[in-house]
Amino acid sequence: MCGIVGYIGNKKAVPVLVNGLHCLEYRGYDSAGIAVLENNKIVVKKDKGRVANLDNMPGINDLEASIGIAHTRWATHGKPSMENSHPHMDNSNQFAVVHNGIIENYNELRAFLTEKGYHFLSQTDTEVIPNLIHYHYTKGVDCEDTFLGAIHAAVNDLKGSYALEVISNLFPDRVVVVRKDSPLVLGKGKEENYVASDIPAVLAYTKDFYLLEDNEYAVVYQDHVQFYDSNLVEHVKEVKVIEWDATAAEKNGYEDFMLKEIHEQPMAIRETIKNRLNLGEKCLFKDLAITKEYLQSLNKIYIVACGTAMHAGLVGKDAIEKLCKIPVEVDIASEFRYRDPIIDEKTLCIYISQSGETADTLAALKLAKRKGAKTLAVTNVIGSSITREADYTVYTYAGPEIAVASTKAYTSQVVLLTVLAVYFAELLGSYEEAKLEELKTEISGLPAKLETVLEEEKTLKDIAEKIYTEHDMYFLGRGSDYHVAMEGSLKVKEISYIHSEAYASGELKHGTIALIENGITVIGVLTNPELTPKSISNIQEVVSRGAKTLVVTNQDLANVSFDYVVRIPETNSLISPILSVVPLQLLAYYISKTKGLDVDKPRNLAKSVTVE
Ligand code: AGP
Asked: How far apart are CA 154 and CA 132, in angstroms?
């Protein structure tokens, strides 16, 4: 939800800021803007619409400034418009601010400032911030660095979440930043420093990063950075070297990030299981200090997440329950955090989040900690907020996921949860060793089988071209096939804007079958031989009512006739979702393409949902 970039150094700021915004556009794309210090004046260029609008905005490329801040917006307060675009300035035009997050008490602050004579040009919550800074600055602050002091005083007035960057023509040698519940990193260069909402945005320039903590301030100069805690006590911070490949966040010849990421799934799985799963040996999670005694003390595991990550949790539940014999409950983070769940020290709470920044997931984690449970984060982003809150962290190594629609993160999460379940089962001795070894062999074979599934791309493209004009679709499955159906349905909804629903096959006839009529598309996932006859009967029920059917299966269904069948390799049913979801991802991708939509940046969405 909104991406921010900052730069101070020895080169032109504009290209760094605009390139960074292009990388962060997945976080929001309603409007974009920059503010730079040019000849000791703040110059703002901004407009509604995509970052590309900035590329050749009149005058922007003539700006020589080497200090600036930038923003790409996902609108919360106020519709996308030039006035509501960031950066925002105070009434005296001396302070410019970009903000990611939400200021919950902005109405009161606005009333307070209005009474003091300030006026507002936008409907945003953010515009109170530069004016509050100006208010405190002119009133006087008890701090040697009056710029930092004024920002600190303003921040103390704020309720909500924020990652802020501030520049001022009164202090042309620095950018001041602070964060709370919204991500912010600093990239350290030689005679230059960078600020960004995430690492890939400035990875092309440096691999040395400072990961800012909640309530931490940084005053960023060209040649050094000073860090302060919430009481403005200065401290020293360690640099973290990030060994990511900058090109991992580029399209590498693919038309869209989503397609590239779908094709990266074999590699993502190889990386995620590497060093953790070795055949003939016990699984290993080096930094996970979970003991057999602790696992034995558990009476419940919760898996909590949002969207696709929650769908991965549903698959993970099956593996943990089957292999470890510990009851697992899966919940949506936004529900869990407000429903007073029964949690104590005998509960392990697992939180799944690709970004590690999802507001509801973070709040749900903090709740479990307060109730005395241990928390385990499953995330893809190194150093993300969730890793700093959780007792334990295990990473998926899927590489940066840029497309808003999650694909490789999902399959990596499912494989990681399965390996974790095997690891726990080995510690507990809760499942037959030979069977665990068989499962481990199947997991190791997944990348090769995924390559085979990806060969079906052309078939899925052809099917998509036949069904892309549909208004409704239904996805059916039983057991983990149902969980895959849920994920397939979400993919279709979010990138092709077709209404779709997922149903447990047996549940359809309890109401929803009334909606099935001639020509409607029903997509069935059938991978569990024990459940296939039942699922086939359910699909026959919709065929008799005129539905067109697409079936994704790992079985020979020669005796039954469906309109389209996509065959995938067989594997253990605990991990079949990793294979069966891929045709659904490709189908959604090609429906969206055929409709001419922006696959990577679907309407109304953003990659990380850092607001409630
Ligand atoms: C998936 O395609 C979605 N864009 C969305 O459901 C996503 O999985 C969800 O917002 C959770 O994000 P997280 O994994 O970063 O926490």
From this structure: 5
What is the Å distance from ligand 1's center to 186 Cα? 25
Ligand 1 site, residue 334, Cβ cutoff 6 A: no
Ligand 1 atom nearest residue 409's Cα: 14
pLDDT at 173: 97
Measured in whole angstroms, how far is the alpha carbon of residue 182 from the centre of its chain?
Answer: 13
Strand partners, 377: 351, 393
pLDDT tens digit string along 395-417? 999 988 999 999 999 999 999 99
Cβ-contact 585, 481 below 8 angstroms: no
CA 299 – ligand 1 centroid, Å: 28
Q: Look up the pTM and report it.
A: 0.80
Q: If you average pLDDT over every residue of the chain, what do you get? A: 94
Catalytic residues: 2, 607
Question: Does ligand 1 come within 6 angstroms of the Cβ of 361?
Answer: yes
CA distance 445 to 572: 11
Query: What single string gives the DSSP state of each residue in 517-569?
Result: -TT-EEEEEE--TTTHHHHHHHHHHHHTTT-EEEEEESS--TTS--SEEEE--
For the CA of 407, the nearest atom of ligand 1: 2
Instruction: Check pocket membership of 494 for ligand 1, CB cut-off 6 A.
Output: yes
Rounded to the nearest 10 degrees, what angle do helices 307-324 and 408-428 cross at?
A: 20
- Which structure tokens are listed for 557? 């269904």
Q: Are 330 and 314 in contact (CB under 8 A)?
A: yes
pLDDT at residue 246 in the model: 67
Query: Which atom of ligand 1 is nearest to 355's Cα?
Result: 15
Would you state the pLDDT for residue 608? 76
pLDDT score recorded for residue 14: 97
- Asked whether 498 lines ligand 1 (CB < 6 A), one says no
Q: Cis ω on the peptide bond leading into residue 87 (within 30° of 0)?
A: yes
